[in-house]
Amino acid sequence: MLIVVFMLITLGLTVSNYPVKGETDRCILDGRKYDVGETWNPTLQPLGTMPCVNCTCLQGGKVECKSEKCPRPDCPEPEHPPGQCCPICIDQVEEDNKNKEPQPGCKFDGEEYEDGEVFPSNKTGLRSTRDEQCVMCVCSKGHLLCHLKTCLPVKCKTLITTSDDCCPRCGEMYFQDELDYEDYLDSVLSDPIPKNVSKADCLAMGYKENSSSWHPVVGAFGEMKCITCRCLNGKVDCARETCLRDDQLPCKKPRLVPGDCCKTCNKRQKHRNKNRRKTKKRKNRKKKDKSKKKKRRKKQPTSSVGEITTGMRNKTKVYPCLAKKSDRFVYFEEKGDSMILAFNSPKDYKVEINTWTVKKGRLSEVVNTFMSRKDFLNKYSYLTVLGSTNKRRYKKLKKKLNKTLSRCKTKCRKRVVIKIVNKLKTKKDTYSGKCGDGGS
Length: 440
Fold this sequence. Notes:
By secondary structure, this protein is α+β, with helices and mostly antiparallel strands. The protein has helices at 2-12, 90-99, 174-177, 181-189, 267-299, 373-379, 391-408, 414-423, and strands spanning 26-29, 32-35, 39-40, 43-44, 48-49, 53-57, 63-67, 106-108, 111-113, 118-120, 133-140, 143-150, 159-162, 165-170, 202-203, 207-208, 213-214, 217-218, 222-223, 227-232, 235-240, 308-309, 317-321, 328-335, 338-345, 350-359, 362-372, 384-389, 412-413, 430-432.
C-alpha cells in the first residue's frame, strides 16, 4: 500500500518547497493554498482524493506528505468503505452505513449510477485532443464529473473493453489487471508472510528483499516504467526517472519504444549520425590534403627517389632530407597493374618494399622484400616521395594494414590500401645538395 500511494504522489502532485510571495505562513500544493498546521488528503486526477495520504503545511511554506499504515483486519473478508484508506471488517461497515446519510446517485443518458460509481462514456461534451484519449466519468454526490484519460500503449494478441474503463486492455491479462486500487490494497494486506522475511525487508506488492529495486504495478495502469522503487532497511523509496530532452540526444528524431520510459535513438539512427560525422571529417581531410599537395608541388620538386638535377648551367644534384622528428622516408606509387609502398630508414641501411599485384581494382598478391638503399635508389628511381614519418606512426600504419587486409582476406580492393596510406600524416621533406641523414 505504501509503495502505490507514494508512487501516485510522485506522478501527479507538485510540492512547493517555497513560501507564497508575501505569505510566509502558507503552503502551495497542486495549485491550492493551505495555512500552517492545516492537514488534508491530496487530490490526484483521475483517481480523485487519496485517503491514504495525509499532507501537512509546515513553517516556511514546506509541505510534508505521509502515507497512512493500515492494520491487518481481523476477519476473512474485509471491506473497503468509499473515502476511507484502510479496509475494515463487514460488521463495522454495516454499522457505519447505518449512521451515514445515503448520497444521491446520478442519471445520465437514460442510465442510473450510484454515488462513487465510475464509468466510461462517449456521449459527453468532452472531445479528445489525441487518438489515445478517451472519456471517464464518476458520480459524486448527485453530480456527474467527467475528464479525459490518456491510454497507455499495450502489446498483446487480443484487446478487450470493460465497463469500468474506457481504455482497451489485454484479454489474456484481464483477470490480473481487473484488480482496481482498493482490491490491490486488499491483496497486498492479505499476502501470507514468508518464513525467511527479515526486518530490513519491505512490504510492497508482496515482500521485497532489502536493497532490491523494481517498477511498481498499479492495477489497470500496469507496470510504471518511469518509477523505480528501492527497499532500504524496511523503507520504500520511489523516484521518477529523469529523461533527457530531445535536443540532448545524439539523433534528430528520438522515439519512445513501447514499454520504455524515455525516448531513445535506435541503432540505425546512431550509425547514420556517426557515418555522417565520419563523411564530413573525411571530406574536410581530403580538402586539406589536396591543398597541402598543391603547396608541395609549387614549393618543391616532385617524383624523385634520389637525386634531382636543377636547371642551372652548373648542374647540381639535390636530395630529399628528413624532416624534424622523423627517421624514415615514405614512397608510394600506383601504376597500372601494381602498387608499391616503401619505407627507407637511413639508420637501418635497408629499405622495406611492399608490392601488390592489382587485377580489376582488386589486390591479388602481395610481396614484402628488403634491399639495400643503393639498389633501391637504382631500381625504383621513379617512385614518388610522400614525405617522412617516425617509427611510431610507421608501426601504427603497418598494424592497421595487416588488420584491414586480414578481414577481407583475398582480393581486397586497392582503395583500402590507398585510404590507409592517405591517413598517414607525413611531414614535408626539404631538398638539399647534401643531407646529414643519409638521403644522398
